[in-house]
Amino acid sequence: MRFLLPALVASLALSTVAFAAEPADTAAALRDKARGDGTAWTILEDLTTEIGPRPVGSPAMTRAKDWAVETLTAYGFTNIKVEAFAKPTWHRGAESASIIAPYPLKLSIIGLGGSVPTPAKGVEGEVVIFRTLAELEAVPDGSLSGKIAVVTTPMVRTQSGEGYGAVGAVRRTGPSIAGRKGAIAYLTRSVSTSDSRLAHTGIMRYADGAPQIPAAALGIPDAEQLERLAARGPVRVKLNMASTVDSGSVAWNISGDIVGSERPEQIIVVGGHLDSWDVGTGAIDDASGIAITTAAGKLIGDLPRHPKRTIRVVMWGSEETGGSSEAYAAARKDEMPNLVVAGESDFGAGRIYALQLPERAMTSPALAPLPGLMAPLKVIVSRDPARGGGADTEGLEKAGVPAFSLRQDGTRYFDLHHSEDDTLDKVDPDDLQQNVAAWVALLYMIADSDIDSRALKDAK
Amino acid sequence: MRFLLPALVASLALSTVAFAAEPADTAAALRDKARGDGTAWTILEDLTTEIGPRPVGSPAMTRAKDWAVETLTAYGFTNIKVEAFAKPTWHRGAESASIIAPYPLKLSIIGLGGSVPTPAKGVEGEVVIFRTLAELEAVPDGSLSGKIAVVTTPMVRTQSGEGYGAVGAVRRTGPSIAGRKGAIAYLTRSVSTSDSRLAHTGIMRYADGAPQIPAAALGIPDAEQLERLAARGPVRVKLNMASTVDSGSVAWNISGDIVGSERPEQIIVVGGHLDSWDVGTGAIDDASGIAITTAAGKLIGDLPRHPKRTIRVVMWGSEETGGSSEAYAAARKDEMPNLVVAGESDFGAGRIYALQLPERAMTSPALAPLPGLMAPLKVIVSRDPARGGGADTEGLEKAGVPAFSLRQDGTRYFDLHHSEDDTLDKVDPDDLQQNVAAWVALLYMIADSDIDSRALKDAK
Predict the structure, then answer these.
(1) Where residue B460 falls among pLDDT bands split at 50, 70, 90?
(2) Are the C-beta atoms of residues B436 and B427 closer than 8 Å to each other?
(3) How far apart are CA A70 and CA A82, in angstroms?
(4) Given this model, what pLDDT does residue A416 score?
(5) What is the distance between the alpha carbons of residues A228 and B46, in angstroms, rounded to a whole number?
(6) Among A153, A375, B370, B375, which has the highest number of CB atoms less than 10 A from its own CB?
(7) pLDDT digit string (tens) for B359-411?
(8) Interface of A with B in 138-177 (CB under 8 A)
(9) CA distance B214 to B176
C-alpha cells in the first residue's frame, strides 16, 4: 500500500503519460532526496582535501586513482575498472617574470601547459602589445625579432561560458603565431573573467613547424599594467620558466557501475574528470563533476530496485591535457552499440539552469515528465538540442553515442578556472545539491526507460 | 553681473542661512565640477603605473617623492615642502611555505611586516589550529614547544570596516602570544574578507620580552585547507622567510598649499599616504586618498578667488609601518594653534556615504548647508561625531586638532587591502569622482568659513 498509493495518484495525475508515471515518481523522490543529501559534498571535500591538486603523472594522481576505487567501492558501485593508458606529461618548474625597465616590478604569471622552458638565464626583451590575436597575425613574419609579444584580449563574462570559446585561441594558438613573427616569448592576458593577480593556466600546443617559444599567462591587472606602461614608453620584461616532459607516464580512466535490473548491458555513461591542473585543488575543475555524478549514481544504487539499465560513472583520467576521451572510447570500442547516452559534468558547481537532450530524444514520450521534474529545481528543458556532453565524452560522441548536457551557470566559473583560486571554498553546498538533484532525476528517467540506445526514439 | 546673480538667487533661496549662501553656491559648483573631472583618476593612474608599489625605504619611494613634488607643482600648489624623517624599514625577502605531511602541498603565504626571518633552512613543525586568539591565549605557556601555531578567525564583511578592528589582533599581537606558548612560528588566516589564495600582509610588532618567532599570513583557502587537514590527522608545515631591516632609512612627508585669500595662516590639513605595501601597486591603499585630496585641492586652487583659509594637502610618507603622523606633528608643532581641522582619505575609493564632523562643529551655522550639499552625492551628515580622521592625523589630533571623517563604503576594501590584488583596476572611476565631489564641497565650506580653528564654534 505504501508503495502503490503514490504510483496510483501519479498515474491518475499524469494519465496522458501513464506508462511513465512510476519512473517519474521515483525520479521525483530521488530529486528531493538529493536536495538534502551530503554525499556530493563529502566526495568533493575528501578529494580536494585528502588528495589536493592532481595533475596527470604526479604522485597525487596515483593517490587519486586509489581514492577513486575506494570511493566507488564505498558508495556501492560494482564492476569497478581501472584502465591505464599512456599519457606523456608536462611538469611545471619554477616560473617568474619581471618588468626590467622603466623600473623593476614583479609580474604575476603562470606558464601555459605544454610550453617549452626558457634558457636557464631566462629571456629578456621589449614587449609589443596586441589587443587581439588578429592584430598579432597582421604583422609581418619576422617583424617581432627579439621582442616579447603580449596579447591582451579580455574575456567576456557570460552565463553559458561562451566567452571562453570566443577568446581561447589567445592561449592555444597565440604562441605559435607569435613564434612565426619572430617573438622570443609570448604572454597572454589570462583567459579569465577575474580581476585577480593570480594568473590562469591551460593547455597550448605548438603548430607544426612553428618556432617553439615559451608562453605564459599574465594576471589580469598585470596585463593592464603592461598596457598602460607600454603606452608611456618602452617596457622590457624578463621571463624565466622551467618545465620538464615525461614521455613515459600513465593515466587511468576509472569507472564503476550501478548495474541495471533488466537490461544491464545497456549503459548510460556519465562522469567527471579526476585530473586537475597543478594549481588550486581542482575543486570546480573537476572534483565537483566527480562528486555530482558519483553522488547521483550512489543515490540510484541505494534504491531497493535498480532502474532497468546500467548507470556507469567514469572518472576520466586526463582531461586537462587531453587523452582520456580517446582512451576510453578505444578501450570500450566493443561496448559502443550498448551505450544509451553519455554526459559529463565539467563546468564547476554553479546551479544547473537548462537541460539539453540529444535531438532525437527531445520528443520521446518516455521523457515527457522531465520538464515537470526539473521545474522545482528551476531548470528548463531547452528547446535547443545538446551540442555535446563534455570533453571526455567526445570520443564516445564521435563513435555515435548521443550526449545530453545539464548546463550550469558559469557566471563565476572563469574567475577561478585553472588558477590557484580553484579551491573548495568556492563551491556552494546548496548549488552542489541542486546539481545532484537534476542529474539523479534525469539519469533515473533514462535508465528506467525503453528509449532506443542509439536512435533515442522510444523502442518497440 | 555674472557673479552677482547666482549669489543673489542663492541668498533668497537660503535666506535662513543667508550669510553662508555664497560659500555654499561655490561649494555646490565645485562639487558638480568634480563629478565630471578626471584629475583624480589621472593622479591615481600615474602613481600606480609610473611608480608602482612604494614601500618606505625603497627606490620606488624615492621616485614617489619626486613624483609628489612634480604633481603638487603641476596642479598649482605652492609652499611645497618635503620633510624628511628617520624611519627604520623592514624589507621582505623570499618567502615560501609548504605542507610536508600528510602530503606535499604548496601554501600561499605572505610574511607580516616586521617579522623576523626564519633560519636559512626554514622551520618545520606540526601545526596546532586555534579558531580564535582567545583559544591560543588559553593554552599554558611553553605548551606549543616545537609547534607552529595557526589562528583561523575569519573577518566579517561590513560597510564601515569595523570587521577589521574586531580581528586585527590576530595579526598584530598573535605572534607574541604564540611565541610565549613556545611555538616556533605563527600563521594567521589573512585579515581579509576575500576568498582568494593571495595572502594579505600588514604590520605586526613583538611585545616586549616575547620570543620573536617568524609570522606570516595564509591565503584564506589555505587556512581552511589546514583546518580540514588538521581535523583528519597530524599536519606538518615548513616555513621559509627571509627579510632584512635597514635602520638608517629615511621617509618624507610632502605637502603643498592652496593659500587662503584672507587668513592664509589658518590651515586645513588633509591628505592621504604616499607609501604602500610592497605587494600590489597601492591603488586603494592609498594612491586613491592621494588622488582624491590632491584633486580636491586642485579644483579649489583653480578658483578665481581662493577661500579665506589655506588648504594643505599632505602626502604622508610612512603610514603602513607608522611614523609619518608623529613626524608631521613634531615638525609642525609651532603651527598647531593655526590648524583648523584635519582629515585623511585612507580607505580606498568606495563611495562616501557619511560625513562625520568634529563634535563641536556639528551645530555650526556656517556648516548648515552641508546636508544639502551632500544629499545629491547620497552622503548623509551623520548624527555621530567623527571618531578620528585617519592614522596620519592622529599626531595632530593628539595635539588638539579636531578631525572630520568622510566615511567610505568599505564593503570590498578588505578583499584587496595589503595584497597583490590592490591594483588600479579595482577602482571605479565614478566612485572616485564622487569622493572628490564630497571632499571639495566640505573643504571649501570650512576653508571659506569663520568657524574657530580649535573650538570649532563660529568665530567672531
Answers:
(1) very low
(2) no
(3) 12
(4) 98
(5) 9
(6) B370
(7) 888 989 999 999 999 999 999 999 999 988 999 999 999 999 999 999 999 99
(8) none
(9) 10
Q: Is the pLDDT of residue A6 over 80?
A: no
Mean pLDDT of A294-304: 98
pLDDT value of residue B456: 52
The reply to whether A319 belongs to the active site is: yes
In chain A, residues with a C-beta closer than 8 Å to the C-beta of B280 are: 197
Q: Which among B50, B196, B425 is the nearest to A220, CB-wise?
A: B425
* 8 A C-beta contact, residue B217 and residue B95: no
Measure Cα distances from A112 to A217, A236, B384 in Å: 7, 21, 54
Which residues 6+ apart lie within 8 Å of B70 measured at CB? none
d(CA A314, nearest CA chain B) in Å: 26
pLDDT in tens, A226-247: 999 999 999 999 999 999 999 9
- Of residues B197, B232, B425, nearest to A420 (C-beta): B197
B420 and A197: CB-CB below 8 Å? Answer: yes
Alpha-carbon gap, residue A236 to A41, rounded angstroms: 47
Q: What is the pLDDT of residues A205-216, one digit of tens each?
A: 999 999 999 999
Contacts of A105 in chain B (CB under 8 A): 52-53
DSSP-assigned states of every residue in B271-330: EEE----SSTT-IIIIIHHHHHHHHHHHHHHTSSS--SEEEEEEEES--TTS-HHHHHHH
**Distance (Å, whole) CA B87 – CA B249:** 6
pLDDT of residue B16 exceeding 90: no
pLDDT surpassing 80 at residue A192: yes
Give A229's contacts in chain B (Cβ within 8 Å).
49
pTM, whole model, 2 decimals?
A: 0.92
Strand partners, A91: A244
The alpha carbon of residue A260 is apart from the nearest alpha carbon of chain B, in Å, by 36
Amino acid of residue B376: P
Q: Which chain B residues contact residue A224 at CB under 8 A?
A: 423-425
Domains of chain B: 4-88+249-447 (3.40.630.10), 90-244 (3.50.30.30)
Min Cα–Cα distance to chain B from A324, Å: 25
- Whole-angstrom CA distances from B9 to B12, B21, B451 are 5, 9, 24
DSSP H/E element including B226: helix B220-232
Of B197, B280, B424, the CB nearest to A423: B197
Please identify every residue of B annotated as catalytic. 319
User: Measuring CA to CA, which residue among B195, B113, B108, B62 is closest to residue A108?
Assistant: B108
Average pLDDT of chain A is 94
Q: How many whole angstroms separate alpha carbon A187 and alpha carbon B155?
A: 36
Q: Which of residues 400-429 of A touch B (CB under 8 A)?
A: 420-421, 423-426
The reply to whether residue A228 touches residue B45, judged by beta carbons under 8 angstroms, is yes
The verdict on A280 touching B (C-beta cutoff 8 Å) is: yes
The pLDDT of residue A455 is above 80: no
Q: Cβ of A424 and B52 within 8 Å?
A: no
B49-105 pLDDT, tens digit each: 999 999 999 999 999 999 999 999 999 999 999 999 999 999 999 999 999 999 999
Cell numbers that stand for B165 in this block: 578592528
Asked if A190 has any chain B CB less than 8 Å from its own CB, the reply is no
pLDDT > 90? residue A1: no
CB contact under 8 A, A108 and B420: yes
Task: State the Cα–Cα distance between residues A123 and B157, nearest whole angstrom.
Answer: 43
C-alpha R_g of chain A: 24
pLDDT in tens, B243-258: 999 999 999 999 999 9
CB-CB under 8 Å, B426 with A49: no
Is A270 in a helix, a strand, or coil?
strand
